[in-house]
Amino acid sequence: MDRNISTERTPLTSLSESFERYLQDKGKGRGGDGGNYRRNAARELERFAEWAAGDRGDDDWTGIVPDDVDHDPTFEDLDERVFREYARYLAGDRGLKQNTVQTYYRYISAWCGWCVNEGYLKAHYAQRASAMAPLPGDDGRKPGDQQAWTSEQRHALTRYVDERACDAIEAYTTLPEDADPSDRQRAHYTALKAARDRALVFVLAYTAVRIGELLRDPNDPRRRGVRWEEISLDDGSMDVYRKKQQWDAASLPDPVISPLRSYRKLMDPPTERWPVFPTFDQRTLATLVQDELADRGERPDAIDKRRGKYARDFLLALDEDVRPPSVTTDGARSILQRLSDAAAIDIDHPKHDYLAPHGGRRGMGEVLVRAFGYTVAARYLDNSEEMVRERYSHIEAGELGDMATEALEEIGGENNNLEV
């Protein structure tokens, strides 16, 4: 019998006993061990369990179990009043934004619904109106308020990384033949890193691919970062693992092809299975090179000697086909923050002080909706037309406003007679 499946579900079952089964059902990958949702849900379930046991809240809060009862919270202790009190607890945290409170409560509500289906609870108490009443309303933030790279920002960033890569590649390729080997290696490394950053920025700026589809997500083993074998520069396409949990081809428009082609030529990856955007983190690469060469039978002193001949472990990895991992999604955010600062780009946004990856996708969405309408934009963005219309509703509102203005101007002669 599967040891992870409880054979008895009763009102006296402790809450924590259901958590692992729920998280496995909601997780991704083999065994349900991966995925951002699982990680975030686990955090909120832990918060709820601590609160229910009286370990969170003010000094007067003792939990949902009566004082004269000696047991951990069970499903028998749950009803809509408990979820109402928890909603009030979340809403009372002044450090949380209104939408964040709603998001945190939804994790608990989803678990509650699962518990009904699994037989732990008789009713979905968390969704009852009285339970949800203390939750704050929407804070008024619209899709159009989220960061989207403007054409000026996109041009400024791509121009900066292009000039930076061109200078680094020229400095490497124009070295004299008698240049010191260590100088040549350092120039090669600098050019590779600049070329990688340029290719990454161009892909994020023009393809509208989600960053989780492009790079490695440590919380989802299936998202290990796109590889060279999944890119066809001749066809202008790239295979990515979509948000809808299946592989699909994404378009590579013309502005992306040249940076990728130049970068690939400079790198000359040993195999097609190399990541397109490998990490350049020295600590990660040092450990990787040492472990891989040791697995191949080399002694520690021989490994140290070989590493000493290279200016960077990444260059040794290239020569010996020690395949590095892809840069992570968080790593890409750090890269974009560094590049945004270096390019001195003017950014006025309440949440991000740099050009965030999702802003590149939304920026392309703006371009496509304005140029070709919602249907074409939805296909390019790999979203439903309904969702695209919702996220870019501010564009349609602006266009309708222009039409209203034009209509008013056409009857302007009549309005001139109105007294103010």
TrEMBL record:
Task: Report the residue ranges that make up the Core-binding (CB) domain in this protein.
Answer: 10-116
- Gene3D superfamilies from the entry? 1.10.150.130, Intergrase catalytic core (1.10.443.10)
User: Coiled-coil region(s) at which residues?
Assistant: none
Q: Where are the transmembrane segments?
A: none
| Pfam families per UniProt | Phage_int_SAM_5
Q: Which UniProt keywords apply?
A: DNA integration, DNA recombination, DNA-binding
User: What is the name attached to this protein's record?
Assistant: Site-specific integrase
The organism's lineage is: Archaea, Methanobacteriati, Methanobacteriota, Stenosarchaea group, Halobacteria
